[in-house]
Protein backbone atom coordinates (compact mmCIF):
# COMPACT_ATOMS: atom_id res chain seq x y z
CA UNK A 1 0.00 0.00 0.00
CA UNK A 2 2.67 2.50 1.04
CA UNK A 3 4.72 1.53 -1.99
CA UNK A 4 1.78 2.10 -4.30
CA UNK A 5 1.06 5.60 -2.93
CA UNK A 6 4.70 6.62 -3.22
CA UNK A 7 4.69 5.41 -6.79
CA UNK A 8 1.64 7.45 -7.67
CA UNK A 9 3.10 10.60 -6.12
CA UNK A 10 6.31 10.09 -8.08
CA UNK A 11 4.38 9.62 -11.31
CA UNK A 12 2.32 12.73 -10.63
CA UNK A 13 5.41 14.80 -9.81
CA UNK A 14 7.05 13.66 -13.03
CA UNK A 15 3.97 14.52 -15.12
CA UNK A 16 3.75 17.95 -13.45
CA UNK A 17 7.37 18.73 -14.15
CA UNK A 18 6.85 17.88 -17.82
CA UNK A 19 3.87 20.22 -18.03
CA UNK A 20 5.72 22.98 -16.25
CA UNK A 21 8.88 22.80 -18.32
CA UNK A 22 7.03 22.62 -21.64
CA UNK A 23 5.10 25.81 -20.86
CA UNK A 24 7.70 27.88 -19.11
CA UNK A 25 9.70 28.78 -22.21
CA UNK A 26 6.82 30.43 -23.98
CA UNK A 27 5.43 32.49 -21.13
CA UNK A 28 6.25 36.15 -20.68
CA UNK A 29 8.19 36.54 -17.46
CA UNK A 30 9.08 39.93 -16.06
CA UNK A 31 12.87 40.22 -16.36
CA UNK A 32 13.50 43.80 -15.24
CA UNK A 33 11.66 47.04 -14.70
CA UNK A 34 12.09 50.79 -14.13
CA UNK A 35 11.85 51.80 -11.37
CA UNK A 36 13.49 48.52 -10.39
CA UNK A 37 11.81 46.15 -7.94
CA UNK A 38 12.55 47.18 -4.35
CA UNK A 39 14.45 50.27 -5.50
CA UNK A 40 14.20 53.74 -3.98
CA UNK A 41 14.24 56.42 -6.67
CA UNK A 42 13.89 60.20 -6.73
CA UNK A 43 11.06 60.23 -9.26
CA UNK A 44 9.26 58.17 -11.89
CA UNK A 45 7.65 59.45 -15.08
CA UNK A 46 6.43 56.06 -16.29
CA UNK A 47 6.70 52.38 -15.52
CA UNK A 48 8.81 50.33 -17.91
CA UNK A 49 8.48 46.54 -17.78
CA UNK A 50 10.80 44.24 -19.75
CA UNK A 51 9.49 40.74 -20.43
CA UNK A 52 11.13 37.55 -21.67
CA UNK A 53 8.63 37.30 -24.56
CA UNK A 54 6.65 39.67 -26.73
CA UNK A 55 3.36 40.76 -25.15
CA UNK A 56 -0.01 41.87 -26.50
CA UNK A 57 -0.61 45.45 -25.33
CA UNK A 58 -4.39 45.21 -25.74
CA UNK A 59 -4.49 42.49 -23.08
CA UNK A 60 -1.62 43.67 -20.91
CA UNK A 61 -1.28 46.36 -18.31
CA UNK A 62 -0.68 47.24 -14.71
CA UNK A 63 -2.33 48.88 -11.77
CA UNK A 64 -0.47 50.95 -9.21
CA UNK A 65 -1.30 51.30 -5.55
CA UNK A 66 0.20 53.63 -3.00
CA UNK A 67 -0.16 54.09 0.74
CA UNK A 68 -3.13 52.24 2.30
CA UNK A 69 -3.62 50.37 -0.99
CA UNK A 70 -5.06 53.47 -2.62
CA UNK A 71 -5.27 53.14 -6.40
CA UNK A 72 -3.04 55.53 -8.34
CA UNK A 73 -4.18 56.49 -11.83
CA UNK A 74 -2.04 55.25 -14.69
CA UNK A 75 -2.39 55.63 -18.44
CA UNK A 76 -3.01 52.93 -20.99
CA UNK A 77 -0.15 50.47 -21.43
CA UNK A 78 1.66 50.60 -24.76
CA UNK A 79 4.53 48.71 -26.33
CA UNK A 80 7.89 50.19 -27.11
CA UNK A 81 7.50 50.49 -30.89
CA UNK A 82 10.96 48.97 -31.38
CA UNK A 83 10.65 46.18 -28.80
CA UNK A 84 7.47 44.14 -28.31
CA UNK A 85 8.90 42.75 -25.06
CA UNK A 86 8.84 46.17 -23.43
CA UNK A 87 5.59 47.48 -21.95
CA UNK A 88 5.40 51.17 -21.02
CA UNK A 89 2.78 52.44 -18.60
CA UNK A 90 2.55 56.23 -18.38
CA UNK A 91 1.75 57.85 -15.05
CA UNK A 92 -1.04 60.43 -14.89
CA UNK A 93 0.82 62.61 -12.39
CA UNK A 94 4.14 62.79 -10.57
CA UNK A 95 4.31 60.34 -7.68
CA UNK A 96 4.67 61.71 -4.19
CA UNK A 97 7.21 60.19 -1.85
CA UNK A 98 6.18 56.87 -0.43
CA UNK A 99 5.79 53.17 -1.16
CA UNK A 100 4.15 51.86 -4.30
CA UNK A 101 3.17 48.45 -5.60
CA UNK A 102 2.80 47.53 -9.25
CA UNK A 103 0.43 44.67 -10.11
CA UNK A 104 1.03 43.66 -13.71
CA UNK A 105 -0.70 41.22 -16.03
CA UNK A 106 0.23 40.35 -19.57
CA UNK A 107 -0.78 38.07 -22.39
CA UNK A 108 2.26 36.95 -24.34
CA UNK A 109 2.24 36.65 -28.12
CA UNK A 110 1.58 32.90 -27.73
CA UNK A 111 -1.62 33.72 -25.82
CA UNK A 112 -0.48 32.70 -22.36
CA UNK A 113 -1.32 34.84 -19.34
CA UNK A 114 1.12 35.71 -16.60
CA UNK A 115 0.93 38.17 -13.75
CA UNK A 116 2.88 39.37 -10.77
CA UNK A 117 3.70 42.32 -8.60
CA UNK A 118 6.63 44.26 -7.21
CA UNK A 119 7.28 47.21 -4.99
CA UNK A 120 9.34 50.38 -5.25
CA UNK A 121 9.74 53.56 -3.26
CA UNK A 122 9.80 57.23 -4.21
CA UNK A 123 12.22 59.12 -2.01
CU1 LIG B 1 3.41 30.78 -22.89
Protein described:
- There is one protein chain.
- By secondary structure, the protein is of the alpha+beta class.
- It has one domain (27-122): Immunoglobulin-like (Sandwich), CATH 2.60.40.1220.
- It has one helix and nine strands; from the N terminus they run H-E-E-E-E-E-E-E-E-E.
- The chain has one helix at 2-24; strands at 30-34, 40-41, 46-51, 61-65, 71-72, 78-80, 83-90, 98-107, 113-122.
- The strands form two sheets. It has a five-stranded mixed sheet with strand order 2-9-8-4-5, with no helix packed on it. A four-stranded antiparallel sheet has the order 1-3-7-6, with no helix packed on it.
- It is elongated and about 40 Å long.
- The structure holds copper (II) ion.
- Copper (II) ion (CU) binds next to loops.
Sum this structure up briefly:
This protein is α+β, with helices and mostly antiparallel strands and 123 residues long. The chain has one helix at residues 2-24, and strands spanning 30-34, 40-41, 46-51, 61-65, 71-72, 78-80, 83-90, 98-107, 113-122. The chain is built from one helix and nine strands.
Provide tags for this entry:
binds copper (II) ion, Immunoglobulin-like, elongated, 123 residues, 4-stranded antiparallel β-sheet, 5-stranded mixed β-sheet, 1 helix, 9 strands, alpha+beta
In the CATH classification, which architecture applies? Sandwich
Instruction: Give the N-to-C terminal Cα separation.
Output: 60 Å
Radius of gyration: 19 Å
* Gross morphology: elongated
Q: What's the number of domains?
A: 1
Main pleated-sheet profile: 5 strands, mixed
As for the CATH topology, it is Immunoglobulin-like
What top-tier CATH class fits best?
Mainly Beta
Bound molecules: copper (II) ion
Strand order of the largest sheet: 2-9-8-4-5
Number of helices: 1
Give the strand tally: 9
Q: What value does the average pLDDT take? A: 87
Helix content: 10-25%
Strand content: 35-45%
Order of helices and strands: HEEEEEEEEE
Label the structural class.
alpha+beta
What are the low-pLDDT stretches, counting only 5+ consecutive residues below 50?
Answer: none
Amino acid sequence: MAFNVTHRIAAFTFASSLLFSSGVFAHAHLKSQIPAADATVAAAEQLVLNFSEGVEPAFSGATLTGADNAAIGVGKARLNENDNKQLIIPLNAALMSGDYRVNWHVVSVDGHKTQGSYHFRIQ
